[in-house]
Amino acid sequence: MNRSEFLRTTLGIIALSNTSMKPFKNYDPLILIGKGSPKLVGTSFSILPEVKVALEKMTQAAKNDGIEIKVVSAYRSYDRQKSIWNSKFVRFEKQGFKSLAIIDQIIKYSTIPGTSRHHWGTDIDIIDGSQTNKGDLLVSKNFHGSGPFNKLRKWMESSAEKFGFLKPYNQDPERKGFNYEPWHYSYAEKSIPMLNAYLELDAISLIKDGDLLGADLLDSKFIKTYLNTHILGIDKALL
Ligand SMILES: [Zn+2]
Fold it and tell me: Cα of 21 to ligand 1 centre, how many Å?
């Protein structure tokens, strides 16, 4: 099944009962959905070894220009993503949102567990560690104008690609899905094949996860749209 065939089919997100699932294109489906045990490196955060090598080169180059690339989030497991999802669900519910409106609020910035690029060990969220900032770090105003991470954003926009890192959630007005995230970068060489393998997982069914708040709202129609807008709503260079 190729990608367009996959997207035409009305499928759910992922198969979670997978003992019979075979590795696809050298990728363990469990790893692609954040439930496996990828070989990661790092202490304060975890990423694939190849990504670490490239990141270290980029970090050194940035340092020479007075910028301290600090990773605030890298690999995230399914369970970690689920706890983020559930806490946001509760928060938006308390704010008065109902049903799908809660989901719509969450998926402005956060993924449905099992669909995060952070499951792969290829993607990072970064700030400039040389700057002090109070409150939420990962908000776009911090990366623009007089924000503390404006210099980092500009440096990344001119230099990151040389080290293999691209920004999936860019400011392209044509792009759908997740909001603009100037802090999120992806190591293209590793994430492109993982996305392709992910999209062709053929044993996909809606999450049957009793602990996931709002799981009953994530029907096949919703998921089909979400895949098109959110999972494929990235910089075209990463497709
Ligand atoms: Zn991110």
Answer: 28
Domain annotation covers residue 135 = no
Residues around the ion ligand 1 (C-beta < 5 A)? 125, 184
Give domain status of residue 29, yes or no: yes
How many independent structural domains does the chain possess?
A: 1
The 10 Å Cβ neighbour count of residue 137 is 19
Q: Residue 123 and residue 31: Cα distance in Å, rounded?
A: 14
Question: If you measure from the C-alpha of residue 11 to the centroid of ligand 1, how many angstroms do you get, rounded to a whole number?
Answer: 25
The predicted-structure confidence for 128-186, as pLDDT tens digits, reads as follows 999 988 899 999 999 999 999 999 999 999 999 999 999 999 999 999 999 999 999 99
Domain span including residue 122 = 3-129+143-238
Residue 123 CA to ligand 1 center (angstroms) comes to: 7
Residue 138 forms part of a structural domain: no
Cα separation of 51 and 189, whole Å? 9
* Helix (H/G/I), strand (E/B), else coil: 104: helix
CA of residue 234 to ligand 1 center, whole Å: 12
Residue 85 Cα to ligand 1 midpoint, Å, equals 14
In a domain, 217, yes or no: yes
What length does the chain have?
A: 239
Residue 118 near residue 195 (C-beta atoms within 8 A): no
Distance between Cα 20 and ligand 1 center (Å) = 31
What confidence tens digit (pLDDT) does each residue in 43-54 have? 999 999 999 999
Q: 111 CA to middle of ligand 1, Å?
A: 10
Higher-confidence position of 14 and 64: 64
Give the CATH number of the domain where residue 27 resides.
3.30.1380.10
Task: Measure 68 CA to ligand 1 centroid, in angstroms.
Answer: 18
Q: What is the pTM of this model?
A: 0.88
